[in-house]
Amino acid sequence: MIEKNIKDDFLDLFYNDLCDEALENNNTLNLFTLKVKNNAFSYDELINELGNKLCYFALSRKQVDELKQADKFNDLVKKAKAKLKHHADNEGELGEILLYCLLESHLNAPKILTKLELKTNSNDYVKGADGVHLLKLSDTDYQIVLGESKLNSDISKGVYEAFGSISKFLKSTSKLEFEIDLINSELVKEAYDQTTYEMLKRIIIPSAKEDDTYLDYSFGIFWGFDIPITDDESKLNNSDFRKNIREKIKKEVLKAKNSLNHQLKKSDYTGYQFYIYVIPFSDLQNKRKHIIEKIVE
Questions:
Q1: How many CB atoms within 10 Å of residue 31?
Q2: pTM of the model
Q3: What secondary structure letter does DSSP report for 208?
Q4: Rounded distance, CA 145 to CA 140, Å?
Q5: Dihedral, CA atoms, 157, 273, 196, 209, nearest 10 degrees?
Q6: Is residue 192's pLDDT more than 70?
């Protein structure tokens, strides 16, 4: 199997305030709240960590390995940063990066490819899932996890948008075929050697006659939403603020469970597993651009 590049310690940046919260049809939700310091989220720590991990998200494993072997670390950083859109026009790539990090570190599902690494320049538009990951459930059972990320100030609208995208995907045979073709063509870039490549190929395209492995499709969903912080809240002492904001966020996410479960009950999604991740932001509209700007700096 391919190894994940985002280790478990990435999760040390967050409080896991809802851990594998049960949803309809055995699906789960995880709420990760960024650590709080001095009555504010620790965006500086997040920016630093995402900057350290960007190359693994933006480039293929083979390209990262070749640049490392050639001792071209400056090129590695430049090539990864060049993939990102300019921060002023960057509405969604922060969500894609965070989903990638959570699927690897929390779900233990290493990436096969990301939409960003397929871009030849920062202005390219690449259709399809935001990312594709491989999850091993057992020695015989695997899942392709297709990523969908949404950054929307209103969490309920984010739910609606994400499931709208997934519904269109499942109703389109050509879109699923496109993802399968894409995986096949890009797989060689994620395998370090021929043995690994052949093993991955056997898992991802199992033969009912010859193999004893089984592959299903699932979805990894990321929502970033806005949590307003009032002047009175910001004036609380550090301990009270931390307790207050975490409870406030938790209540907001739990309120969205009804919308989530309503979607998950639909017949369109029967037989599919959903891994749902939520991270709140203060002033989302500006913060998502600010974070990208700082990463590129």
A1: 23
A2: 0.90
A3: T
A4: 16
A5: -140
A6: no
